[in-house]
Every structure is written in C-alpha cells, then in structure tokens.
Backbone:
C-alpha cells in the first residue's frame, strides 16, 4: 500500500467512524423518546420530547454532512497519480504534505504530518491544476510545489 493510499484509507475510516457515532446518537435519542413517551404526560414531557426532536434534527443534519464527505472520498482513487494537481492529489510544498480532498483534521502518518484540505480552500484553490515547480504566495508565505502524487 502506498503512502497516499494509507492516508486515504485513514481519512475514509475517520469519516466512517463519525458516521457510526452520529447514527448511534440518533438511535439512542429515538430509543429515549420511545421510552419517555410510555411513562410521561404533561408540559414537562412535551418539552422534553420537543428538545429531543430538535437534537435529533441537528444530528441528522450533521450526519448528512458527513455522508457527503464520505461521497467525496469515495470519488477519489488513491491509486491514480497525476502530474497535474487535482482532487485526490498528495502534494508536498515547502516540506508540508497536503492531501487535496476535504477539510479534515491534520493527521500524523509514519512521523509525517498531513493536512487534508478542500480544493475550495484558498491554498487548495491555488494548487489545483498546477504541477511540480509551481510557486505561489499566500498570506506573505511563498510556496514551492516539490512533489505531486
């Protein structure tokens, strides 16, 4: 498995873990509301059910966002390596590894920090469509693209 494939797999698992957590939380709220409905009546009961429903809606929105993220990751084939930077490229610029995919948490793999960024982010946008040797400046820092996988 290549370094890029390991990174992709790690981020895919991270997103899947988030999906599982949100599904568990939603399922727990559903169970709580069913159990609460059996034994309560009155204003406090209605307020509690309403609050649970609001929380469930929030969790459903977050779940939908994470499912969208999973969809983006599924479109990326980490086995493909191109000279031109595109979605799924692993770019080394100024010694920093950037994985063009989604805005996800920074990870450390084999002692190397990897920053996942969206192609819509200012840095990602500058990189898209360019090749090794490309130089650009963001916030007063000049970057040089050293490698593209």
Residues:
């Amino acid at each position: 498995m290549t370094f890029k494939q390991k990174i992709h797999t790690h981020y895919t698992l991270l997103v899947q873990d988030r999906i599982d957590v949100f599904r568990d939380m939603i399922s727990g709220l559903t169970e709580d509301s069913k159990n609460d409905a059996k034994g309560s009546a009155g204003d406090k009961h209605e307020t509690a059910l309403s609050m649970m429903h609001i929380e469930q809606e929030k969790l459903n929105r977050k779940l939908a966002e994470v499912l969208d993220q999973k969809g983006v990751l599924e479109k990326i084939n980490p086995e493909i390596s191109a000279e031109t930077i595109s979605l799924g490229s692993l770019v080394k610029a100024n010694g920093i590894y950037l994985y063009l995919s989604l805005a996800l948490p920074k990870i450390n793999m084999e002692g190397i920090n990897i920053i996942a960024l969206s192609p819509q982010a200012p840095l990602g946008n500058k990189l898209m469509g360019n090749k090794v040797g490309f130089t650009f400046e963001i916030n007063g820092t000049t970057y040089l693209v050293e490698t593209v996988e």
